[in-house]
Amino acid sequence: MEATKAPSSAQPKLNDITLLIFSCLFLLPISTVRTSASPVERAYSSGSLRTMARVYMASGGYEKAQSFLVEALHLAKETDAPDSELSACMLDLAYLYKNRGRWLQAERACRSGLGLQEKAYSQSHPYVAYTLRILSEIYRNQARYREAADTLERAITIVRGFSLEDDQELAPFKVDLARLLTAQGDYVKAEAYFKEVIKTIENSYGPDHLYTTRVLCSIAALYVHQQRYAEAEELISRLLPIQERVYGPDHHFLVPVWLVKSSIYEAEGDLVNTKMLLEKSLGAVENLTDSGHVVECDVLSRLGELYILTGEYAKAEDVLQKALKILESSNGTVTDRAAIALNGLAKIYIIQGKYSQAQNLCGRALGILENIFDEYHPNIADVLDTQIRLNRKTGNTAEATRLEQRAEEIRMRQRVAYAPVAKDVE
């Protein structure tokens, strides 16, 4: 691992600048407008407006928050605020757009804020590293994984300039890298990073801190991908009561945990509780003013798969079509989320005997995944399974056999990669 240097005395180690409500995402300190501003302007400074916006964002009130942030940016420009304040306005907007699933707007605001931030401070300032985390997440949610990795690597390089390898400041960046590796299907490396940082996070933030629970939820999701359901259930049982105490039992911020728990129920064959949790999740996100977030797409895709299992094909088609419409509205039609929805629709069309439509959807889904990932990503195997079913239905046994061999090769690679880790599991 790359060596790190001790923090310079000229550049003191940062305190924990992460607000509880943003779970370790960077938020710039509040600055004020120039002293020559009028009393009214000072009373309603851009910094004060941003503070109010953050309060709304903490509870998911993004529409109200956006109005405050737009006004904050307008006021900062009108009063000739310094670049640091303009940057803070742009980055708060980027964070808001990211949480609303408006990726292009989020990217533009984030890159603009980053440029102002680098001008106000420097390209290697710690603030820049935290902004790069936000930009990396924006790329990750657009399935632009190479850009996400490069951006995050730059951020980590900056943090290593003022932090030791096992310090609290570096841990959230490694968590982001683990999440990125999970999305790319590299579960072994992802788990290695999670194991490396979880003790630091628990010691630094505390075992009952919201950020700690969110990291544990990401680890549980990884275990589900690896079919390690007992370990996933253990983590969920630990973190869910903590989040329920903070948010309440029905808050939409619990949806990521419910998705993991529903996967555990499904693996156990408990489709009743699976359906209950997924429909509860859908109700939670649909009731938001900002309906249409990517989390809603994840819920809809999972519901579609469940409805296929239970034979509710009309419902399945409806929710999967809805997921695709949401992705289309957010320019997400060439992401792995879109591929999952397309693959689900293809399964329905095979059952309905609409083979040409199913073939078209499978082709689109496979093309998206092969463009995003390498040829051995586990999601590719899922699409190949659908194509195998289609070719058997249409009598093309030779093609079905070829696809079966490719799908098995992908899964064999996953088993071989996981085997050394599995031996360490108590």
Can you describe this structure?
By secondary structure, this protein is mostly helical. The protein has a domain at 321-414: Tetratricopeptide repeat domain (Serine Threonine Protein Phosphatase 5, Tetratricopeptide repeat, Alpha Horseshoe), CATH 1.25.40.10. It contains 19 helices and no strands. It has helices spanning 39-43, 46-58, 62-78, 83-99, 103-120, 126-141, 145-160, 171-183, 187-205, 210-225, 229-247, 255-267, 271-286, 294-309, 313-329, 336-351, 355-372, 378-393, 397-424. α8 packs antiparallel against α9 (187-205) and α15 packs antiparallel against α16. It starts with 38 loop residues before the first helix and ends with a helix. Residues 1-43 and 420-426 have low confidence and may be disordered.
CATH topology of the domain at 321-414: Serine Threonine Protein Phosphatase 5, Tetratricopeptide repeat
Number of strands: 0
Distance between the termini: 27 Å
What can be said about the biggest beta sheet?
none
Question: Strand pairing plus helix content: what structural class?
Answer: mainly alpha
Order of helices and strands: HHHHHHHHHHHHHHHHHHH
- Report the principal-axis shape: globular
Q: What is the helix fraction of residues, given as a range? A: over 70%
**Count of helix runs:** 19
Q: Low-confidence stretches at least 5 residues in length (pLDDT < 50)?
A: 1-43, 420-426
Into which percentage range does the β-strand content fall?
under 5%
- The whole-number mean of residue pLDDT values reads 87
